[in-house]
Design a protein that fits this description.
Rossmann fold; two-stranded antiparallel ribbon; 40% helix; 18% strand; globular; binds flavin mononucleotide
Length: 212
C-alpha cells in the first residue's frame, strides 16, 4: 500500500476523479487530491471519496500562525507518488519551467525526486500537438535524466522516449476520442485503469538515481 497524491488541473477530465480515486483505493492505496482552482470548476468535492485540498486550504484567511504546518510540504512528505491527472497544458508549462504559484505546483517544486511521478495529460488535440507541448516535455525529459532527445520527435515518440529513459517520471499518454469540445482526435485523458496500472508499476520499480 502506498500514499498517492493526485494533482488535478483544469481539464474537463477532472470529472473522472471519483473513478480514479476509487481505482487507486481498489489497488490498496491511500489517496489525497490537491486541485487547482480551475480543476475545482469541474469537481464536486463531495463526490470524491478522499480528502481534496485547494489553494484556499494553503492560504487560510486568518493569516499564517508561526510554526503552523505548510500544506504543500505536508502533502509532499505524505505522498509516495505524485500523480498529475488530469494534467492540463497550462500546468504542464508551469512544471517545465518550475513556476509554483499554487498549492499543486508548490508540491511539484518541493518534490523529493527519489519518489516517482506519473503524468496523465488531457487537452484539446491542437494543444497536445502544439510545439509548446513538445518543448515542455523535452525540457522535463532533460531534467529527469533522459539525455538528449531529438527536437524533431512528435509528442507520442517523445512520451515513449521519456518513459524508456527518464528516472522516476512516467507519462500515460492521452487517447483519441471525441473530446468534450466536440473535436475528435488525440488529447483525452487515458482511462483510470491505465493510469492506476502505470502508478502501480512506478511504485514497484526500483528507484533510479535522479541525475540532473
Ligand atoms: C470548459 C473548459 C474545459 C477545459 N479543458 C481543458 C483541457 O482539457 N485541457 C487543457 O489543457 N485546458 C483546458 N481548459 C483550459 C484550462 O482550464 C485553463 O488553461 C486554466 O487556466 C488551467 O489552470 P490550471 O492549470 O491552474 O488548472 C479548459 C477550460 C474550460 C473553460
Amino acid at each position: 500500500m502506498a500514499n498517492i497524491l493526485i494533482g488535478a488541473t483544469g481539464s474537463v477530465a477532472a470529472i473522472k476523479l471519483p473513478d480514479l480515486v476509487t481505482k487507486c483505493h481498489e489497488a490498496g492505496h491511500d489517496v489525497r487530491v490537491v486541485a487547482t482552482e480551475a480543476a475545482c470548476y469541474f469537481l464536486d468535492r463531495a463526490a470524491i471519496p478522499c480528502p481534496v485540498f485547494r489553494d484556499a486550504d494553503e492560504w487560510p484567511t486568518t493569516g499564517y500562525p508561526r510554526g503552523a504546518p505548510v500544506l504543500h510540504i505536508e502533502l509532499r512528505k505524505w505522498a509516495d507518488l505524485f500523480l498529475l491527472a488530469p494534467l492540463d497544458a497550462n500546468t504542464l508549462g508551469k512544471l517545465a519551467v518550475g513556476l509554483c504559484d499554487n498549492c499543486l505546483t508548490c508540491v511539484w517544486r518541493a518534490w523529493d525526486l527519489t519518489r516517482p511521478i506519473v503524468f496523465a495529460p488531457a487537452m484539446n488535440t491542437l494543444m497536445w500537438e502544439h510545439p509548446f507541448t513538445r518543448k515542455h516535455l523535452r525540457a522535463l525529459a532533460v531534467d529527469f535524466g533522459a539525455g538528449h532527445i531529438p527536437s524533431h520527435l512528435q509528442a507520442e515518440q517523445l512520451v515513449a522516449q521519456i518513459n524508456d529513459r527518464a528516472a522516476g517520471l512516467h507519462i500515460v499518454g492521452p487517447v483519441t476520442k471525441t473530446l468534450a469540445c466536440g473535436d475528435t482526435g488525440i488529447g483525452a485523458m487515458a482511462e483510470p485503469t491505465a493510469i492506476v496500472a502505470a502508478a502501480q508499476t512506478m511504485l514497484t520499480r526500483p528507484r533510479k538515481a535522479h541525475s540532473s
